[in-house]
Amino acid sequence: xxxxxxxxxxxxxxxxxxxxxxxxxxxxxxxxxxxxxxxxxxxxxxxxxxxxxxxxxxxxxxxxxxxxxxxxxxxxxxxxxxxxxxxxxxxxxxxxxxxxxxxxxxxxxxxxxxxxxxxxxxxxxxxxxxxxxxxxxxxxxxxxxxxxxxxxxxxxxxxxxxxxxxxxxxxxxxxxxxxxxxxxxxxxxxxxxxxxxxxxxxxxxxxxxxxxxxxxxxxxxxxxxxxxxxxxxxxxxxxxxxxxxxxxxxxxxxxxxxxxxxxxxx
Amino acid sequence: xxxxxxxxxxxxxxxxxxxxxxxxxxxxxxxxxxxxxxxxxxxxxxxxxxxxxxxxxxxxxxxxxxxxxxxxxxxxxxxxxxxxxxxxxxxxxxxxxxxxxxxxxxxxxxxxxxxxxxxxxxxxxxxxxxxxxxxxxxxxxxxxxxxxxxxxxxxxxxxxxxxxxxxxxxxxxxxxxxxxxxxxxxxxxxxxxxxxxxxxxxxxxxxxxxxxxxxxxxxxxxxxxxxxxxxxxxxxxxxxxxxxxxxxxxxxxxxxxxxxxxxxxxxxxxxxxxxxxxxxxxxxxxxxxxxxxxxxxxxxxxxxxxxxxxxxxxxxxxxxxxxxxxxxxxxxxxxxxxxxxxxxxxxxxxxxxxxxxxxxxxxxxxxxxxxxxxxxxxxxxxxxxxxxxxxxxxxxxxxxxxxxxxxxxxxxxxxxxxxxxxxxxxxxxxxxxxxxxxxxxxxxxxxxxxxxxxxxxxxxxxxxxxxxxxxxxxxxxxxxxxxxxxxxxxxxxxxxxxxxxxxx
Lengths: 266, 504
Fold this sequence. Notes:
The complex is a heterodimer of chains A (266) and B (504). Chain A is mainly α and 266 residues long. Chain A has eleven helices and no strands. Chain A has a single domain (16-257), classed as MetI-like (MetI-like fold, Orthogonal Bundle), CATH 1.10.3720. Helices cover 72% and strands 0% of the residues of chain A. With 504 residues, chain B is of the alpha+beta class. Chain B has four domains: 1-79 and 173-244, P-loop containing nucleotide triphosphate hydrolases (Rossmann fold); 258-361, CATH 2.40.50.140; 367-421 and 487-504, no CATH class; 429-484, CATH 2.40.50.140. Helix content of chain B is 17%, strand content 42%. In chain B, the strands form eight sheets. A six-stranded mixed beta sheet of chain B has the order 6-9-10-3-11-12, sandwiched between helices. In chain B, strands 15-14-13-16-22 form a five-stranded antiparallel beta sheet. In chain B, a hairpin with a 2-residue loop joins strand 1 (5-16) and strand 2 (19-30). The N and C termini of chain B lie far apart (59 Å).
């Protein structure tokens, strides 16, 4: 008897598996392969030894983590109160304001960064004079919408009755904020922070454009390695980046899970 | 001002935008009392409670606490704690920290001796030991001693409720406010908690102010009940007073089962309704039109005899201890209770003890019908008078589908024969001598000149009375059409709309 090939539901995932293998698993395997071989294709620790013995490379890494952290914190400081007010129907009746804050995301990223550079130069915050400040401003400007949006959705869902309960139990408005509103909005803060920290770690267009090449971030050095055909060094740097992002996800996942087991921002 | 009035509401009103939610309420609450605000949803009871707790500022009037004006005091400065409708526990804290929330914020004056011998008073937080003791005691009162470390989401509804109560009473407030705290519990749990709350009230000795729409809950628990409707207090009294001597037809209808009729005082202590003259004990002016309420358990059914009013049993329902009978008398219905098993369609004579006939002043400011129902054509019927009405008002956001069912969010409601209470403003009714203008006709039985308008009483062919303010003069015994616009008919469903749900 001939076996007929019947359609089963599990076949639906074939495209996804193919995609996964081709574009995610295979590249990672390739990165690991290149990271631990030399340019002749033999197994070697050259790239590893080279990275940990070159102080400039380590300082670029630390510098990138530092800038990413700074960007994240500044974004949170700006967008937390902003989201709080935008979520209040009194200030933002029909959601027009929130759209205005999201709108920059609709414009091409490279184009936007070029415009930012021109604007900053015109304002006197010149990449040649103050490369660090210019980079930071560009980063914050670009990633602000990514923090406003998750915080805004969290603020919309704030449980008013909990806030009233805290006030009823004797908490002054400031104490209500500290002891109830912040804990309630923590999952939003965590997801906002991940949305900024991870991409700023790896971005290189912003720093490259705005600092006029004066600041090299980790993303830049990966790019430079590959454009100079140093595939092994570049792959090893990419691997380090992968590990850092994985670690930061572990940390944030822990944070966002604990306060609200049911909801989950992911 | 008496000393034992812990809360005084002095002519308070509250409006949101254009709608007046609370309309000039004045009342006082005595120290240690268990007071219940009772009324249908939207009657302003929760808003009143929120003005006592400080979450809403009255638009007009004052709130006094122990004789002191606290109208503008924010909630955190009032010695009042609330048990919220949905508990509003803090999910990021465990049971202990939820209960200790208020105590950890509290500061008490402590006298400290300085090195130079001077005594200074400083505000200090409570020591951890004291907090521990108080939390333990509060959790003991609500029977949750072993759950201190549990997280909130692992608790059942009843346990969360208890945590909410513990969290409020641990602060030793002067007043405990409870906003429909048992609404989310199932029936059995609710009955248990009612008794426990009552017990707790006795033990703690503080004032409880309770809000509910459940009349049975109010009757079981309260020392004093405040019945409210449309932002206005209808009656304040003990549960027995409210049940036995309702001040108007609304209270009679809302509290317990009742037969309500329009009646007329035909002689001294003689009242006429159901086409029969009854002896009664209330003394009203002769010829005055009144409302009469008779509780079903006060109707005595007997074998037919000629000296009594005769009715026919239309239907019966077995209720465990007794039967509930619907008796047809003329064109009206009468609800009665009896432990005996009587036959449907049999004739019975009806007797009511004079003291069980409660006579109430008729409210001339509104036409109210308490035994109306919805017909299968989505009209509202008072006995046989059918009017077009807008059913969507029973469920905000709903609409009528093509098949004539009320629908909202995909749920379909079949309201045929659903009992409703109907209110029509006296200015909203029009009369016409064109008989074809309406299907409902009546006879003018009274017309009084009120200075600049006539107040006319019309009795329809199915013996319902309508009061109308009109500029036109009508002659007694004129036959008229009674016209009411669809939007002027205000409906209130008896019981919850969920029981009319149908599978679409």
